[in-house]
Structures are given as structure tokens and as C-alpha cells.
Amino acid sequence: MQKVQAILNKYLAKAHTIIVGCSGGPDSMFLVHALLEYRLHHPINIVIAHVDHHIRATSQRDLFFVKDFCQSNDLLLETTTLNEIKHTEAHLRTKRYEFFQELITKYQADMLLTAHHADDLMETILMRLTRGSNLRGYSGFPILNTNGAYPIFRPLINLTKEQIINYNQTNNIKYVLDETNTLPNYTRNRYREQILPFLKKENPLVHQKFLEFSEELIKVQNVIDKIVDEYLAKYCHHQVLDLTNLSQEDELISQKIIEKYLAILYPDNLYLITKKHLNLVLKLVANPTNSSLNLPNNLTLIKEYNLLKTSKLSTPKSYEMPLLDKQELPNGYIIEITQETEDTSNYTIRLNSAEITLPLIVRSKRPKDIMTIKNLNGHKKIQDILINSKVPKEARAIYPVLTDSQNTILWLPGLKKSKFDKSKQEKYDIIVKYYSFSTPKEKK
Question: Nearest CA to 92 among 442, 437, 414?
Fold first, then answer.
């Protein structure tokens, strides 16, 4: 605890109000107790933020536990419930941090504190190395992140899960447990239960090596960011990028300049730009002739001589595109190939690639579209399904249809699944989700 108090003293010296994410689990309760001890010697306002994801039957138990603790310790508590059928882990994370953003604004708070620790850092780095990421992604997360809309401070980054649990037991710090944290169907849990124990057996201080690795990558990324920012400040104005001097830069720097340029074009939805999109943009830049490229969100990138600029397209009456990991659709929804989900509603479909022809295609409906509905005999017209589902007439023209490359209709997202949908017990290797980031929160 002394080590944590020293970190709090360093980073909270000028803070007046902080928001603290608290699930009621062992990590966040350790953090809250550390902050209560810090508050004994420093005048600081602590606002506890609890998010009920409403996925587990025991989530209400967690909420009541946190409420009781806050009442007993004179802590201000803010809560929200994510009552959404359609969810992915990434979607819920976005909703969670939107809630934190609201609290930062409401209380004019200096920063958000989360209870991420050394094991979390190791899991994050390993998962990103396995799935693929960029330099900053491979670094995991820093102790203090000031690159977002508000600072995020992680004071437990030097502690392992075992150290936190041992301290809680020794000091009788009570907490609740999320039963899903050990289920093997979650990717992070498999890293936690199978890979981390092996690494710790090889080197009991392996978490420190991961922290050093993370800090080293962050330093390198900061140097690259400085070079990139200087280039863009000089050659990018009003979203028009002058490419004249780009060829003089190192290949890595050139790529990072294009990545940062895309971040400027997609300030709120950069998640739509995948590695495949980036490679297409790099090919466009390298092309000696004038050309263009259609990107997500109805944006066209145009290379005209030595200039790279954009053109916004109007909402199309019809569209067709390959499903590249994640796409924002003309109706404002997201369609995404995901790794895992517990959802079995019409907002998720599981497919066996051996039964269809890849790649997957997402497109608008066509006049003669028909689909074999799951668990029903015969076909049904897509137009009839949309009408029976009371989809407004103006929305039907751009409502998404998922097909394979042979134009076999697999799914009418959110409404009906075809016979190709698999249950969780059947063999499948593709999961696709359909959801909206604009879904309103439940009123409190």
C-alpha cells in the first residue's frame, strides 16, 4: 500500500475531484480503500462510478454492495445500467466510457481512475500481439493516459492480481466476484487462466518485464508522434494533405503520417478504419496517377497530383461492400465480425465458413430478395419481413442484408436469421454482430 500511496501522491497532487470506476470486485475495492486512506491526508472529492452491465443475474448484488459501501464511507455514488440486448465487449466498453465522460463534465473532475493492474497489462499486450495492432496498441496502456478526452490514471499498474488479493485478505477488505471472469469462452479469461500462470512460473517478476516493455514502446511512440505532428502541422491544412515531401520520409514515418491523417478524418469513429483500409490508402498514395478510394462512412479519398483530399458522399439509395472486420452502415448501425459474445438474439449470427462462400457481403435489399428463415420451411421475401417488422418505408431502401459472395442471403440483421445460423453448441467459426452506438441509455 505504501507504493500505491506514493503513486497517488505523485499524480493526484493537484487534483481536486476524481471519478473512480468501481465494479465492487477485488481490484476496484483495493483502489477505493487506497483512496480513502489518501483522503485522510489530502482534501479531495471522490466520486464513485458504478456501471451495471445487466448481463449477469448477480449484477444487482454488485450494485447494492457498492451502494452500501459508499453510504458507510461518505462517498458520492453515480450509477448507470446498460440495459441493451445487442452488445459486444467493445460496445459495452464504449458505453461505459461515455458514462465516465458525462461524470467528468458534470463534476468538472480532473481525471478518471481505474483499477487496471499488472496482470491486466500483460493480458492486453498478449492479446494485441496475437490479434495484431499498432505500436501504441502493442504497448498496452500507460499509468497515465492524457491522449483522450480526459486523463485516465491507473495507479495499480505495478501490482499483480495476487498482491491485490493478498492485501485484501490480510486487511479484511470485502468485495464481490464476477463469476464470468473464469469462464473459458471469453478470450481474456483464457489468457488469464492458462498463459499468465505459465509466464509467472518462468519468471515470478515477469509483470515488471511487461511494464518495462510497455514503457519502452510508449517512449518510441511519443518520439514518432512528435515527428508526425510536426509534418502534419506543416503540410496538412483543412483535411488536405500535401504529399510532395512524403517520399523523403522514412517508410515507417510515412505510414504513421497517413495513419494520423486518417485519425483526423475520423475523429469519433477511427474504429471503422481497419488494417485493410490502411493498406488500400497506402497503395493510393503510392499510385503515380490520379485516383480515388471509397472509405467507410460515405467518405471518398482522392489523390490529385501531390494532394490527398476527401469528398463526402450523400447517403446512397443502394450499396454493396465486402465486410472487412467492422463497417458503419448508411442507416447509422455498425456491423462487425467479432471474436466472442454471449448474445444469441437476432443481432448476432454464427456461421460455418464451410457452408458458405467467402467473403461476406453487406448490401442494401433488392426487389426479388428472398431468404430461407431459420426453423421455418420455404422462403420469405425480404420486403415482406421489413413490412411485417414495421420498418419505416424510408429506412427499407438502405436496410442491410448480409450475403455470401454467391449472393445467398444469410441474415437480415436485427430481424431474421437464415438456416445458416448456428447455435452455440453447433460448429461455427464466424460471429457477426449488428448494433448502434447511438442507442439511448436507460433513464435513471
Answer: 437
